[in-house]
Predict the 3D structure of the following.
Amino acid sequence: MAPQSAREALRPKAVPQPTRRSRSARSFVIVFINFLFTLAFVAVLGAGAVAYWSKSTFEGRGPLTEETTYLVPKSAGLQSIAAGLESAGIVSNSWIFTKGVQLAGAAGDLKAGEYGFQPGVSMREVMDTIRSGNSILHSVTIPEGWTVKQVFDRLSSEETLTGNLPAMPSEGSLRPETYKFTRGLSRADLVAQMKSAQASLVDEIWKQRAPDLPLKDENQFVTLASIVEKETGVPEERPHVASVFINRLRKGMRLQSDPTIIYGIWGGDGKPADEPIRQSHIKSDTPYNTYVIKGLPPGPIANPGRAALEAVAKPMKSDDIYFVADGSGGHAFSASLDEHNANVRRLRQRERQDDAGAADDAAPAQ
């Protein structure tokens, strides 16, 4: 370096000035940052507005104007359920319903079934209803003494059931009962339920039977119970009717039961209402005609209920081997043929009196 004089050494040196952005560049950055803040604010505000609107829509009154039902199919997913509810006019927006269910943590809790909804039901109420699984239950009643054919005819006409009927099971294998089910249950599943219920019932009562019954197995047990079921509609008579047939079996007498004639000729369809039992029917050669065969027919003639099964398992103690209608809905029982014939004569006399009374009522006034 060249030596400096004292004056030069004391002279202030120039300080480098910082580089400044141009005014235009500084203005663009500020505008852009302001834009981003504004955009974020609008987005947050919009999201809040959407969230508030969605929540209000999810919890507010819905579009449904009249009471209705909706079937949630088995294995249906949330989006499918939501779309179906919107299509049915139960919810106004499937997207909001879907998101509301997801946020409630109920996406995996919705259950198949048929549900009823009131007018104005909210989406939250719809979700809670389907989540509860408290679906509408339908019912079908199978009366005691119906044949399998009659049961199948009833199930075939039940519109709330689905699918085809299975192969017809053996007579006596379906339990008479009132069955409750949700819409969409298959006919095959209901028949399987009826078979299982009857098998359990028969097994339960058979194990509690009197030890001296002249019955070899459960098939004979159900067969005799089905005959008792068809012979009387008076519940308290069943043990008495059962005792008559048990006594006849023990004595080697033919059962001579009219319902067995009917089943042997007309099967599960039953006798036509306008067709009387004729002498030709009584003499008919069928394996079910207990006027011709000895002992029990090869199988049941109907589906017996619990009361008939219990009556056969523990019949009344009696010496009676005959019974005949008494004209009042019940039967007159007797231990001898003479008593029986006297009961028959009383029945015929009563029938003649009833016919005469009917004729008098129908006669024109003089």
User: Anything to note?
Assistant: The longest helix spans residues 23-59.
